[in-house]
Structure formats: structure tokens, C-alpha cells
Amino acid sequence: MRSRGWCLAIAVAALGVSATAQQAAPPAAPATTTAQGPAPMRIYIRSGLKTHGAGEHDYPQYLADWSKVLTERGAIVDGSLHFPTAAELVNTDVIVMYKGDAGAMTAEEKATLEAFLKRGGGLVSFHDTLCGPDPEYYSSIVGGAKKHGEVNYTLGADVPYTIADKTNPIMQGMSDFTIKDEAFFLMTWAKSPAIKVLATATMAATPSAKGHEGEVVPQVWTYERTFAGGTKPYRAFVWMQGHNYENFADPRIQPMVLRGIAWAAQRPVEDLMTVRPARGRGGRGRGGA
User: Fold this and answer.
1) Which residues are registered as beta bridge partners of 217?
2) Which of 25, 32, 57, 245 is least buried, going by the fewest C-beta atoms within 10 A?
3) 193 preceded by a cis bond (ω within 30 of 0)
């Protein structure tokens, strides 16, 4: 009996070591196909606590609304108000980020993100997700970043888009138009590689933009690079607006955002453009289609 008990104890201990090793393993590359066809796109929405006034910077509402928007289009969606763990990213194709000052990360969070990028995981960034204490570092992640604490914004103003690359599939069918939102300037830009500009805007003459009015600054772009030690390039898509939450539902904006998410996930840009009733059509929120 002692012999059997001893063997059982060794087996249990071995299983524990194995489980610990699996938990510590870096994120695996997500599958893109199954025996039945293309695997569903797997999206993690990184949100945060609401800031600003009514209808502005409504990160939790985005998590609620766009979980439905993306699920209706065939995606498998996870998300939270915290930085994703390595375990949460194992089966993730793209992280969609709408959270203030997301550039502020701990060393552990940076390591988790970098491991995700090294195997080609995608990023999507909206509005002040670009803000943080170290724009030089964060610009190397998403192509452009802004310094926390600097006056580098127009506040509520017209944002007149000039579509810089009408041939890009993310921007298909789009022409110049204007929305009311907030634009950023005094940006730190990645240099090697550089961003691919999809749309620019001229900075409005607001009190906070004094001295920068009339400047033309990229507001929509893509960014691709292979992270040092990585196995494949990753993609980032950035839409700099989203101060006014209602703009996520603008019919001129929402298709671009859906195509940008699919592109960053390294899928065909039309993958999220069709609502699939079979997966359920829950109630729509303020940011829904």
C-alpha cells in the first residue's frame, strides 16, 4: 500500500509541475482554419473605467456594445477592464484597445504584450489609447504615440478627414468628410518602419491647439513590423478619434473600423462586414450598428 501511495503522490506532483509549465508557457499562435473552414476571428477588447463627461470616452459602453457588434459578425469576443493576461491571449488574434493612457504599462504587462506581438498578434487602437509616459516606446508598438500631460489635443472641434490612401482596402469607398471629435498633434512617430497614413486632418483653431492650428496630422494609419525575436510580422490599425462615443456608430466610420480590426487580425478585410443572425442578434447599444 505504501508503494502505491508513493507512486500516486509522484504522479500527482508530476501533473502539478506539468500544469504549472503549461500556465507559464508563452501564448501559442492562434489557429486560422478548422476542418469546417476558417476559424472564427478571436478578439480581446481591452477597455477601462469611464472618464470624461456624458457621451465621451465611454470605454465600458464600447466593451458592451462592440462585444455584440463583433459577435453578430461571427467573431469570438472576450474582454475586460484589466490588461489581458498571457492566458487570455493564448487564443486571441487581435487586441482591440479603447482605454485612456494605455501606453502606461508595468514591466510584466509589456512582456505579455511583446510575447503576443512576437507571434504576430494584432493591435487596434482608438483615441487616447495612444497616450502614456513613454511615447518613444509606445510609438514603436502602434506607430505613433502622444505624451501624457502635454497639451496636444484640439478638444471638441471639427476633424476634417482627407483620405490619403483611397486604394487601401480598409478605406474602400471612402471620400473626404468631417466629424466632430478631438484630434491630436505633437505626436512621436515610429521611424523604422514608418506608419502608412490612411487619413489626415487639419488641426482646428481651438484654445488648446493655439500655435498648432492648420497643421496636417495623420489620424488614421496602419503599422507593420516584426518584433525583435518574433516569428512573424504583426499589424496595428489606429483610428485616433473616439472622444465622442457616438462616432463609433457613424456609418462613415464603423465600416472602416470593422475592416481595420479584420486587417490587424490578418484576415480578409470583409470578414466582419456581414451580420450573421444564426449567432444571435442581441439588443443594440449606443455604439451598435
Assistant:
1) 201
2) 25
3) yes
Architecture in CATH for domain 39-149+188-199+217-279: 3-Layer(aba) Sandwich (3.40)
Q: Are 245 and 57 in contact (CB under 8 A)?
A: yes
Residues 6+ apart with CB under 8 A from 82: none
Supply the pTM of this predicted model: 0.84
Q: Which helix (H) or strand (E) holds 289?
A: none
Domain ranges of the chain: 39-149+188-199+217-279
Q: pLDDT, tens digit, for every residue of 122-171?
A: 999 999 999 999 999 999 999 999 998 899 999 889 999 999 999 999 99
- Supply the pLDDT for residue 149: 86
Q: What is the pLDDT of residue 136?
A: 96
Q: Which residues contact 154 (CB under 8 A, 6 or more apart)?
A: 182, 183, 184, 185, 203, 204, 206, 208, 209
At 102, the pLDDT band (50, 70, 90 cuts) reads confident
Entry field: residues in the chain: 289
Give every CB contact of residue 236 below 8 A, 6+ residues apart in sequence: 122, 123, 124, 125, 141, 142, 143, 222, 223, 224, 264
User: Of 199, 229, 243, 1, whose CA–CA distance to 98 is shortest?
Assistant: 243
96: helix, coil or strand? strand
The whole-number pLDDT of residue 56 equals: 87
Burial class for 127, CB neighbours closer than 10 Å (0-12, 13-18, 19+): buried
- In order of 105, 248, 250, 285, the CA distances from 66 in angstroms are 24, 9, 14, 9
Residue 277 has pLDDT above 90, yes or no: no
What is the four-CA torsion angle of 276, 279, 281, 282, rounded to 10 degrees?
Answer: -150
Q: Is 63 left (phi over 0), alpha (psi -120 to 50) or beta?
A: alpha
